[in-house]
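Renewal narrative, Specific Aim 1. Our central claim is that a sequence can be written position by position from structural information alone. The example that follows is taken directly from our test logs and has not been curated for this report. It begins with the structure tokens describing the chain, in the order in which they were read.
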């Protein structure tokens, strides 16, 4: 199973005057201010390390600071994953970690 999730990265808290009887308004950011996490796992519980797509023009190592071993990433102008970057994810990340690669059982 493959899943892609957008994470909003630029949150701006609204001005809130606290009152016991009120609820806090939702805090959101612009649609263009997001990063994407590509994750993959199967029904047996095997997982492939995440692959991040950050908004930016140049990949910087500090974007992946604190990552789990094997996790990797790239940048796009929007932080969204699209066809060219998904193909790169499959070729350069997914195939490196997928289990059971065998020429008799192609993936």
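The sequence written for that structure reads:
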């Amino acid at each position: 199973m493959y899943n892609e999730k957008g994470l909003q990265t630029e949150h701006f808290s609204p001005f809130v005057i606290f009152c016991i009887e009120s609820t806090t308004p939702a805090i959101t950011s612009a649609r263009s201010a997001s990063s994407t996490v590509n994750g993959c796992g199967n029904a047996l519980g095997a997982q492939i390390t995440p692959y991040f797509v950050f908004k930016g023009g140049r990949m910087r190592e500090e974007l992946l600071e604190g990552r789990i071993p094997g996790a990797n990433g790239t940048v796009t102008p929007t932080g969204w994953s699209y066809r060219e970057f998904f193909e790169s994810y499959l070729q350069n990340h997914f195939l490196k970690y997928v289990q059971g690669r065998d020429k008799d059982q192609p993936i």
